[in-house]
Structures are given as structure tokens and as C-alpha cells.
Write the C-alpha cells for this entry.
Amino acid sequence: MGHGPDLSHAHRKNAIRKWGHTLFALYGPDKTDWLDRIRYLSVWNDVGGWEFSSEGEIQSFEEPEQYKNRQIKERFSPEMLERYCKALGIELNDSEFYGPRNCAARITGRKTLGNLSMSIAEARSTLDL
């Protein structure tokens, strides 16, 4: 489960583009054709534009009317992801929910331009990790 805001509209030629996405995956104990996955929903931006994917059995907490939205990126929003998680008892954006051994990383910006090849220390510094 996760969400990344779309920051793909950088104006610099050599800028790192951050393509937006929202993803929900629900797994269960029974064998399925793909990793015991019960339900999968996602919207993502790529070079060709926004795309939507929906697989598996619709769950009772879902808002399937939204999946027909004319704007593809609105078919599955970050707010919907949070509601879906809450319906499953998951506090998606509450770090206390995950306990003392959790780690969350948020990329807030890029400090420098240059080569995309870098050490882990450089990546941590450059991506504010």
C-alpha cells in the first residue's frame, strides 16, 4: 500500500522525475494465481499518462463508483486508500500504529543536479532520507 505524489512535470532536462501513484494490495491465506493476492488497485502516471488497474474481488468497503471517474488519476485517490486501510484496521498515516521499530522515508526534494549514479550516503543526503 502506498502513495507517491506526481512530481513528473519538472522543467529541467536532466531533472529526476517522480511519477505519481496510489496502490492497494490485499493478500490472503488461500492460493490464488498471483502471490495469494485477493485484491489489487492502482493508479499511476507514466510517460503515456495516467493508468488504472483493478484485479480481484471487490471488497465491501470499496467505492467502485469512483473507478468509472472520467479523470483516471481520480479513480483511486490517496484519500480512498486511507479509507480502505482504515476499514481493515490499518492506520496508514499514523506512525504510532506501526510500533517502535518502524521506518518511514519521505522524499522532500533534491538538493543537487548531476549524475544519477551515487553512493548510499550520497543518496541519503541528496534525497533527504
The helical segments are 78-87, 120-126. The two ends are 20 Å apart (CA to CA). Residues 2-100 form one domain. The longest helix spans residues 78-87.
